[in-house]
Design brief:
Elements lengths: L2 E6 L4 E6 L47 E4 L27 E7 L13 H19 L6 E8 L11 E7 L4 H17 L3 H12 L3 E4 L3 E4 L9 E6 L11 H22 L5 E6 L20 E5 L2
Antiparallel strand pairs: 1-2, 3-4, 4-6, 5-6, 5-10, 7-8, 8-9, 9-11, 10-11
Bound molecules: zinc ion.
The site of zinc ion has 6 residues, from loops.
């Protein structure tokens, strides 16, 4: 066995990679595949259409995608303003925002990987709208869209849904990626994520699938055993600027990757999937001509 350190150009840190890890026998847990047991509708599920939530609010009898404000947000603009200061060298500041839930479809048991391509496409259209709407608010500096799927990553309700945190702060990972991209452009005159895509295409071994305008690959600098980047080939600051053709290609690859994950272990694969998008803090994330803009990608990582 030997280890290798690989530079993660977006996070600007070294990742330790253990070579030959694929030889290690699988001794982990295999989760029971219980998809057949899941109903399409559950009376006591707080995400199913028409059902009552804990807050007393009732879900619409929705037939497509359904978006609502989270009843138990961990960030809220109505959070208490005066927090007692911590002792000594510790510091704190109010973290606020809007938390939303996006139900993918009215069917309790259909995972994202099982939705029809046109349904995934319209979900991505909702992500575009949400990013635009929330990002336009002055108090919102970043819009995080993410899905955590499966009990293995701590999600209690199997209902296919994702979450949105629109916050008055920018997550450090995003800040780092934006700064690294800006510096690379200034120093090398090239777009960092384009160089990443180029390197992956040249090597080719880690490219999972691609089409006209999107690509899915395991990055050279992967931090997890199962980590996949799904990205448009053109550079965009956020999902909001993708054309309808690019959106179709992007959802097509997203589905392919998720189906491959499910097939790999013969079970609905648990994952965390954050969308990496430019902050909405008023900063300039557009690229000077002739370049166009900085990276957007969705990563699906195993727990
Ligand atoms: Zn349900």
């Amino acid at each position: 066995m030997y280890w290798e350190e690989r530079w993660h150009p977006l996070r600007e840190e070294w990742v330790i990679v253990a070579a030959h890890r694929q030889d290690r026998p699988w001794s982990g847990e295999t989760t029971q595949h219980n998809e057949e047991l899941l109903p399409e509708y559950l009376e006591d599920c707080y995400l199913c259409p028409g059902n009552l939530r804990v807050s007393g609010k009732r879900n619409d009898e929705y037939s497509g995608t359904f978006v609502f404000d989270n009843d138990h947000p961990c960030v809220g603009f109505d959070a208490p303003q005066t927090l007692q200061g911590p002792p000594g060298i510790y510091r704190s500041q109010p973290a606020r925002g809007i938390a939303r839930v996006v139900c993918y479809s009215p069917n309790h048991k259909l995972a994202l990987s099982e939705l029809e391509p046109h349904e995934i496409e319209s979900l991505l259209g909702v992500w575009q709208e949400q990013y635009r709407e929330l990002g336009a608010r002055v108090e919102i500096r970043h819009v995080l869209i993410f899905e955590n799927k499966g009990e293995a990553v701590g999600v209690s309700n199997p209902y296919p849904h994702c979450q949105i945190y629109a916050t008055n702060f920018v997550f450090k990972t995003i800040e780092t990626e934006a700064r690294a991209s800006q510096r690379h452009l200034a120093e090398a005159g090239r777009i960092l994520f384009q160089d990443v895509i180029q390197a992956e295409l040249e090597d080719g071994r880690r490219v999972i699938c691609e089409n006209d305008s999107a690509i899915a690959f395991i990055p050279y600098f992967a931090r997890y055993a199962y980590e996949v980047f799904v990205a448009p080939k053109a550079t965009h600051p956020s999902i909001a600027s993708l054309s309808s053709a690019e959106l179709r290609d992007f959802s097509d690859l997203l589905k392919q990757v998720l189906v491959k994950f499910d097939n790999l272990w013969q079970m609905p694969f648990p994952y965390v999937m954050p969308l990496h998008q430019a902050p909405t803090d008023g900063g300039d994330y557009e690229l000077p001509l002739p370049h166009r803009v900085s990276p957007t990608s969705a990563t699906a990582e195993s727990a």
